Amino acid sequence: MARSPRAQNSFDSPVRAGRRRTAPQRNVSGSESFGRWTEGIARAMGTPWFLLGLTLFCMAWLMWNTYGPESARFDSAALGFTALTLILSLQASYAAPMILLAQNRQDDRERVQMEQDRQRAERTLADTEYLAREVVALRLALEDLAGKDFIRSEMRAILAEHDAKLAAARQAETQTDGSAAKNTAE
């Protein structure tokens, strides 16, 4: 059933019940898969397990390079653990953009969800207004219907009219019979 654009926006009919509202098909492109990957990493970095692992890694690094055999140390405490500082700086420099990207993607999802909620609320309002108008129309139609008291009074009036006609017919019949009897007597 095709509907004109005006009919789709009017409140005089409900939204067609058979129409399904489905989410748009998502095309998983390279940027989308990269975005999902970065969200996964950002999500993992926000867990207590990541913080615990990073803490244990740093403690092991510091312990090895402080108390380990002199020949096996690869990051000198005398130089301020330069390699560890560089690794943590590199991790932080990648973590910040990944977290921002994940937040931006979340903001986009929330914006889409808010738009869908707004559209759903508009449809609900339109349906509610339509139903309210229909209820008012039904109330007005019910007011025009005859009530039982009205029907009883009409039936009494018809019955009284019928009784009056019946009494008049009987009286006319008696008069006719009386005239006929008089005519036969003469």
UniProtKB/TrEMBL annotation:
Keywords attached to this entry: Membrane, Transmembrane, Transmembrane helix
Biased composition (Polar residues): 1-12
Region annotation (Disordered) ranges: 1-33
The keyword Ribosomal protein is annotated on this UniProt entry: no
Residue ranges crossing the lipid bilayer per the database entry: 46-64, 76-101
Domain of life according to the entry: Bacteria
Protein's recorded name: Putative membrane protein
Source organism of the structure: Lysinibacter cavernae
Lineage: Bacteria, Bacillati, Actinomycetota, Actinomycetes, Micrococcales
